[in-house]
Amino acid sequence: MIRKFDFLIIGGGVAGMSFALKVSKSGKGKVAIVCKTTLDEANTAKAQGGIASVTNLKIDNFEKHIQDTMVAGDYISDPAAVEQVVRNAPAGIDDLVRWGVNFDKNEEGEFDLHREGGHSEFRILHHADDTGFEIQRGLMEAVRRDKNITILENHYAVEIITQHHLGIEVTRRTPDIECYGAYILDPDTQKIDTFLSRITLMATGGTGAVYATTSNPNIATGDGIAMVYRAKGTVQDMEFVQFHPTVLYNPAETHPAYLITEAMRGYGGILKLPNGAEFMQKYDKRLSLAPRDIVARAIDREMKIHGLTHVCLDVTHKDPEETKHHFPNIYAKCLSIGIDITKQMIPVCPSAHYMCGGIKVDLNAESSIHRLYAVGECSCTGLHGGNRLASNSLIEAVVYADAAAKHCVQVIDQYSFNDKVPEWNDEGTMSNEEKVLIAQDMVEVGQIMSNYVGIVRSDLRLKRAWTRLDLLYEETEELFKRVKPTKDICELRNMINVGYLITRQAIERKESRGLHYTVDYPKHAYDQK
Known about the structure:
- The chain has helices spanning about 15-25, 60-70, 80-100, 130-145, 225-230, 265, 290-305, 320-325, 330-335, 390-410, 430-450, 460-480, 485-510; strands spanning about 1-10, 30-35, 50, 125, 150-155, 155-160, 180-185, 190-200, 235, 240-250, 270, 310-315, 345-355, 360, 370-375, 380.
- It is an alpha/beta fold.
- The strands form four sheets. Strands 1, 2, 5, 6, 7, 8 and 15 form a seven-stranded mixed sheet that branches. A four-stranded antiparallel sheet has the order 10-13-12-11, covered by helices on one side.
- The longest helix has 24 residues, at about 460-480.
- The protein is globular.
């Protein structure tokens, strides 16, 4: 079956929905949002802490936010991208509010601002401790009201369509690769349909599920990044995987792990060993409010030194009612496993959280493949550099969705549908035994990545990961060629591709920088002890 949409959006988080709302109002054609589960399961909905924007000009300004972002990114952020996001952030907040998103306000009617690690001022807008869920709710209601937007839930994008599918050889040196849409698996028919588009936007979110322990939902398998890489698009900075320093340590629930927001440390939470001893003073003068890469490495080191499975976050010195008011969901979650955070310390450990790299895009969010844009966590704008500053990701998605929409509206009339695209050949069968192998291989990818490509790396560990991933790649590609594609085997292919990219780009970086720390090229004196 062939379907045609002027704008094809793959992914339904804040990035995809913001873009959809913008282009829909342009009158330039029909819009489709394709998401592999339901709209409410996007990574956006899991973001607890908040969204960063300069709004209180009495104490804050753009220059401070720019400087904080550059410092956190270890000075390899793209200054133009940083400038674009920071200066356009207030307009992005206005868009969200107009679409129906609610942010907490104080008694004076101003935004109730939090401060998080790496920020020099209070500039984090939030909705209690479930900001991402509130943003997702507001945008979902807005896109569902828009009659020009078709929402296709539980549809899975298998590959994007380029000249390669027309029988033309495409390599990484091909100068004018074009995207004509995507092949998409229909859950009802179990057939792969051909979706033709004039503009395609990739907004598929992150890669956390390639690790054994992650704060991301299980759907975060890096699909967009893998599809663009296979289509010979440019992918960059994949070695910079952010591990959130504090997810709830709960052996009964490891995937996805429950996030303990950074706002809790901004609120005054103190990192301690289980015996009550503080340790961050050994690593950074900002203590528990140091940037995430420093805090995650510090916790990882203390766990190894003392043979611990976790450390603790202590808010017992804060007013109990205030704690419950600010963090109602965290309070309830911890209480459900027998921990009263107003009286007991919270057991926490680091977990894979955010991909700073991805599909390389310019200031218009345009990828190296013509007619293909990428926004949100699957993209690499250059904003985050070596390490994402807390709460910069949601605002990046909104600002770049706006930039992409403006550019698309200007150029879409140059493009037409490519009616020469062939339909997918879906010959093949799959046995139950093959399904078991796929499930086992997914687990193995997670173990490889967590054991060898984690917070602390080495040449030996990275080489070991490379070798094992290569074997899995060969086996999976051979299987993919002789079976009917299913969501599971496509996700496995993507996880292996993403794991390979993280590993390869980590091997290529011969220094410790930002989130990439290797014992073979140590940077900080405390790490050499």
